[in-house]
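Troubleshooting: if your tokenizer reports a length mismatch, compare your output against this known-good record of 885 residues.
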Amino acid sequence: ERRARLVLSEAFAGRGLPGLAAELRAAAAAEPATVAPGSRGRILLTSYGFNDPGGGTVVPRLASRALAARGWDVTVFHAAVKPLPGAGAYAVREWQEDGVHLVGVFNRPHGLLDIGHPRRELDDPAIAQAFGEVLDRVQPDVVHYHNLHNLGLSLVDETFARGIRSFFTPHNLWLICARNHLMREGGVLCDGPGADGANCAPCASSRDAGGYAARRLEMIERVAGRVGQVQAVSGFVRDMLVDGGLPREMVDVLPLGAPSAETIWNDVGCDRAARDRTRPLVIGFVGAGVWHKGVFQFAAAAAEVTGDVRFVLHGDISDADRGRLAHVDPAGRVEVAGAYAHADLPGVLAGIDVAVVPSAVWEGAPLTVGEARAARLPVIASRMGGLAEGIRDGIDGLLVDGWSEASLAAAMQRLVDRPFLLEALAAAIPAPRTFAEYVDDLEAGYASGAAEHTEPATPLAVRWCGDFDAISSLARINTEVVRRLGDGFTVDIAAEDRPASTTAPPRPAAVEVRHQWPPRFDDPGLGRLVLIQPWEFGSIPRDWLEPLAGVDEVWVPSAFVRAMYVGDGVPADRVHVVPNGVDLDTYRPAGPARRLADRDVCVFLFVGGTIYRKGIDVLLAAFEEAFDGRDDVLLVIKDVGAGTFYSGMNVGDELRRREAAGANVRMLSDDLDDEGLAALYRGADVLVHPYRGEGFAMPVLEAMACGLPVLVTGGGPTDEFCPESASWRIPAHREPVAPALLGDLQAASEPWMLEPDRAALVRLLQESAADREGRERRGRAGRAAAEGYGLDAIAEQYAARLRSVALRPVRRSQPARPAFELPDRRGTNFLATPAWLGDDRLTDLLVAWSEAFSEHDDVALYLLADPSRDGDADARERRVLDALE
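Known-good structure output:
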């Protein structure tokens, strides 16, 4: 009635009453529009269950009824949930309901999921046979799979063999996880199956590791090759399936419309009155009262909220979970209203002011959010999976960290304390997407062969592994880059030097970046793997070559290092240069300077590990020769990593001995933060860094940013960012490296490092000490050059690289599969896969082949048939001979 009043009022606004009356009389006299059943074609849907709860069942049930009402001949082939007494295993029954022809497979040996039986998930022969018989009898124009768990992946083979167009709507992550949500038993989030499914068998308590390896390889491959289009229910599901290996171009996003959204909007949300502030704020949890929906987080967070507020749980909850709820909420803050009928949902939503959806799993696209928003309720939801896509944080709802009771409690307290915020969020909620609109899009897809392509703006999920708080260049780069990545990314920090996070990431990483020593090559489970791995010895370790085949990209700080990887056989398109950056606000010429001498002397500064690779021995010998007997120069050595990563490799004891003997050498071992290190650079006159091997040399860039001239080895990575105008370059040549220097590692080819010319270093030390004006000039040029390496600019290079690698197909080491030996291999070999059980068009193919080629052309045509799916081999051969004739 409300809709009718709206239509009439709009009509009155533009027309006079006589005109409206005439239109109403004409409409009343017209014949009602009808669509003949089946006039739009035949469609076959699949689902798990039919008249059963859950979005993966509700959506195909209501879609099938809507399509039937629009004139489609609809059949639903489903895994019947309730047992059928007196019937055997895999009993098939057929009946009609609401204009839909139902085919149910009863008494299957598996329930909701088939945990522990990966081969049956791939192919359950009894179900596949029943499905094939339905296909042959119904002969649908379109097959639309709504989930395939408990039916088996081999249904896609049956459709493919008959050449029938198909669509697949995955409501969860079953293609990449036998448990649907990438969560192990007991509530532990999972990183993914791994390239060969090695993580799955232990999770399922199964000994069939080979079956899970086959499952991992075949699930995505067979969907990619045998389904026409995948219609993900959210950007999250799309991204996860692409990260799992589906080609991005075949996955569209077709958002669901909540089945009752239109009714709820018309009855509750459309003209919902402002909250009566004289009564308590009512915060409601609506849905199944089970742990993975976050019901216990809701209760625990409610216990922390103060003020005039009530908490209500609407939904079915078991006796066991009621007991656990009482343990979490001993004060009974949460009122348990119990189960409700679906018809009562508008009234339930009308009785609360805020809806809470604190799911503890990565959700696909829960209908609860759409239903609450249709009632114009602000939703507080966890940032997990597809939940975040339906809410604009701070505009029409609030997002909180997954698994964080503190974050949830803070959001609820915020709305208790700020009633105006609640009203502003509610006012910003738009009219919902209706289920009819969803069905419209389904029909458009069936007509065109693909749904309208949509690209929800989902942040790129990154996991960054390594040190963050240690005093090292690796930790500094990790910290500063992650802090600057921006709003287009969500970053899960896996820090070796920090406690593990107690909150859940929004989703598994699309890209895992590892910047640590030693490098790790183990499979991340899902998504892409990137290593940031500099190297200094001319040839990379031989032991890295094989695992690098499973790494999507290697990022190195210089072209100097990149040449090492490419020279040892790593494909050039997978090795990319992203230079290190410097904080230009901290490392600057102006600022406090550390006093390093009590008299006017020329101070040379060395910063780094006092190890052979850094050239400390060359420096000490050259400095002693250059300034023997002089007291107007001082060498200050800031040792780094003596007690950690360079422990046992440095010459600290020798330096302290020289300092104690009165040499013009001073040793600093105190730990310095960035401000302290910048002050040290500003207190010196020249940075000297005569390295043999570096991947980048951060002290050189930091000194340049502080306006300090540098005396540095030529021919290495510093040539790329330190121009001659800012430095004195030490001539150097390559020399082979003693194998002992690489420890347990063996180089892939002959290793080498640069050997700085000691005599030239002596001369340049003397020249730089005498040339104050030259030092100042080079210092200014160094600062100008360093300004191109600010951290913001470098972080954007990392961001661009992340976005680029995320668009690439996932690279993983796969088990070697021997190539099939073609019996009559020619110069060009064609493969055809006819729809043997349908309209194979084999005669058309052979006619086109004979017109394109003659018997003298160096070509061959191979026809592929799978006896397990495509029927009897002899029958196929006869069919080919008939077509040839």
